[in-house]
Write the structure tokens for this entry.
Amino acid sequence: MTTALERIERTTQALKVFPLPSAVLFPHEALPLHIFERRYCELVRDALAGDKVMALGQLEPGWESQYSGRPPLQPMLCAGVIVLEEELPDGRYNILLQGVSRARLVEELPADKLYREARVELLPDPPYEGPEEERLRQAVFELAGRVPPSFAENLLPAVARTSGGALADVVAAAVVPEAERRQELLCELDVRARLEAVLDEVGVLLARLSPMKPVGLLN
């Protein structure tokens, strides 16, 4: 059976790119998207008719005045696969995009479609083991004790079963909301440095939260 990464590897010479300045996708994260612009509805339609592969990308600063055209893309993208889709009667789509791998933009292809395509280099994480993993897990477990259970119920199992760069990514996806900071973490290819950076993010969040009182003391 073909894996998601193998499917993406087949598209590196012409990867469909959806620029979305308000959102950054990490590998191992599933992101719901509502697609309504004509050009990106066409992108999703073509992806669904084929390998279901597309990438989410950020635009370089100053894109606002050029958005209807093709403002420059930032060089780091996240390639993923569409794992759920709903086509609406008017041609719009609701999709769930599962991030799979970082991808570095090599060159954008000529504009022969409404949407954008690029040649990319995939950047899967190398294997990594180090003390930062356990420190990050412990920080997430502490965080889980200070936030509503609904936040932790999906994150804790993911933290328990992932390691290395994937561990950093699943935690970053859950605790870092700002698109600019998420893009910085997406660009961090050094796994150790990424783990340490995400640990710092969790530490900042912990510093803002008071320890939760035992249930018997809440009344």
